[in-house]
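ugh ok fine here u go
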Amino acid sequence: MRGSEEPGSRPAATPCGCVKPALETGNLLTEPIGYLESCFSAKNGTPRQPSICSHSRACLRIRKSIFNNPEHSLMGLEQFSHVWILFVFHKNGHLSCKAKVQPPRLNGAKTGVFSTRSPHRPNAIGLTLAKLEKLEDGSQSSFKYFQSAEEARHAIEAVLSADPRSIYRRKLCQDRLFYFTVDIAHITCWFGDDFAEVLRIKPASEPVQMTDLEEYLVSLGS
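structure:
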């Protein structure tokens, strides 16, 4: 998610240390204020919209290099029920984009990219409304994002009921096993006619730890 800078002189910085946008040139330099981690660590199984799996959870870690006291920037946030999050699709497999795309909900039919949630757009920027659950100092239970195994089970059931497979997998790979990750659980399953069966649940591999992060966390629900 770290933005890259164009060669040349650096625009003047604002008092808070952020880069002043060079709008007159048509360019906008941004600095990530934090990194988002969710219970879905891979593309497979990730719901295409938050309402599909209301039990999913995520955590926003604020970078300590943005402010001298990052926790001060979160003061008063607990008074609100939801937060708007502007983010970058930094894991896009390629940088190209097309005017028409084939979203899963249309089963192969094409439509304009701006009428969809496709991450492959001219500027890979997304906007989401997230439910704010709590602010905490980074302490974790056995699950990273869920309070109990029951909560994790509900999330897995919601993912399966929405059939997260791509159109290609639904039509040409019906007999193949499907894998996805929720929190610390790696799930192996397969889909039949109007049902899904979980064959195995095992611990997922540990994610890569990021540095330069503040231990004040924003816990998000959908």
